[in-house]
Amino acid sequence: MMHKLIKLLLIATSCISSACTQYKPKALTELAVQQQLETPTPEQLSIQAAQIKHPLLKPIAFNIQDGLSPDEAGVLAVLRNPGLRAARDRHGIANAQLLQAGLLPNPILSYNFAALSGGLDQGKVTGYGVGLAWEATSIITQANKITAAAAEQQAVDLQIAWQEWQIALAAKMAVYKLVAYTKQQQLLKEMLQRLESNRARIQEAADKKLVTELDRVAAVSAKNVIDVRLQALMQQKNQQQQQRLNRALGLKPDEAIKLQQNIALTYEWVAPAYDKLTHDLTNRRLDLMALQQAYKNQDEQVRIAVLQQFPSISIGFTQTKNNSDYYTVGAGVAVTLPIFDQNQGKIALAEATRQQLFDEYTNRVFQSNADISELLVTITALNKQIQSINHAIPDLENLVSAYKLAVKDRQVNVLNYYTAWNNWTDKKIELLSLQLQLVEARIALEIATGIYQI
Question: Are 350 and 301 in contact (CB under 8 A)?
Fold first, then answer.
């Protein structure tokens, strides 16, 4: 009989094991990493961009052949950024946790035997016992565990979407910065050419003793100042290309990407009212929605901790045969006695974590509203500054034209003409800086409000 039971136990174990998941190797090799980082073809990117699924970003007609637009850069960053690939793996982890939460503990099958080892063995046989037990109280918290895991899964997905949203807008901002830096670079190059021409004129005059050494040094100094500004701007532009845009797009540092030629910086942008932007904010901003789900998960964890303070009960059934060849069938109950550990520590930890999430959510809502208010003030101020400079530029242009005519008529020194021209160029560079700040404030407002293309 004992051999039959052992055989039955082995068969049952074998049948259960055959349904288990098998190990699948995944080698971490240089080739596998390079394949993962390989840039897709434009056709593949177009297909992926048209099928993108995101709560805020919408599918777009992606055409990289005519250059990259700010919106295309945002979508491309979501598709290609290596950091986002790693973040999305958390979705699979959350799914596995949800699956695990829905599983009940396995029953425990036990077997023992009692062979004779001495004494009077006449008429005696080898005894055995077979038992089957299961923790019945595990079913009490199963529904709560499933609810908590589902909330955690939603929180993870929303956190991933929030991270995608931020990286997309960072790539979009990087494109606008490159556009502004390129235009400023061209203006500084033109200014440098004028100052170099002026330096050459002054040097020629100095050689003929027509100007003082102070005039010559001043011309050289003015040219060198603009040269330093140009070099600093070019370095800033290269860093923006390599460290901001290329990194966000998942490209190599030295991999160049062409931008669209018609990308414009706005001269004025009137933002919606504060009440409109903050209305229903908690149901629109992805990070706030993620915190809501995280709080729901933690609230269920408190419920689980409270339920687990009650005694754990296991029920079981046994069949035995003793050495006198008597068979018995019985049932048993095992109950833990909550004398020392009544789950006080886990309950306190769960409640403290829930309170932390509550305060974090409250603070995030407050900070979001404050950010929106501050950005609206900034946008209003930038609009006024841009209008002021934009009105001053035509007057400076007219002054340059007047000096140009006066130089031809030998009524003013050419240095005055160059000075007016440089002042005009400086104002145009300053205008580009303010326009860039306006774009940056608008994109920051998109992040703060959870509204794409306000």
Answer: yes
CA–CA gap between residue 2 and residue 130 (Å, rounded): 10
At 395-441, the pLDDT tens digits run: 999 998 888 888 777 777 777 787 888 899 999 999 999 999 999 99
Query: What does the pLDDT look like over 289-298, one tens digit per residue?
Result: 999 999 999 9
Backbone phi and psi for residue 253, each to the nearest 5 degrees, phi listed first: -55, -35
pLDDT value of residue 2: 47
- Cβ burial of 182 (10 Å; 0-12, 13-18, 19+) is middle
Give residues with Cβ within 8 angstroms of 402, minimum separation 6: none
Length of the chain: 454
Q: In one letter, which amino acid is 130?
A: V
The 10s digit of each residue's pLDDT in 81-103 is 888 888 888 888 888 888 888 88
Q: Distance (Å, rounded) from C-alpha 225 to C-alpha 308?
A: 73
Give the tokens for residue 338.
């909550």
Could you give the CA distance from residue 428 to residue 225 in angstroms, rounded to a whole number? 18
Mind giving me the DSSP string for 155-175? HHHHHHHHHHHHHHHHHHHHH
CA–CA gap between residue 443 and residue 452 (Å, rounded): 9
Distance CA 454, CA 451 (A): 6
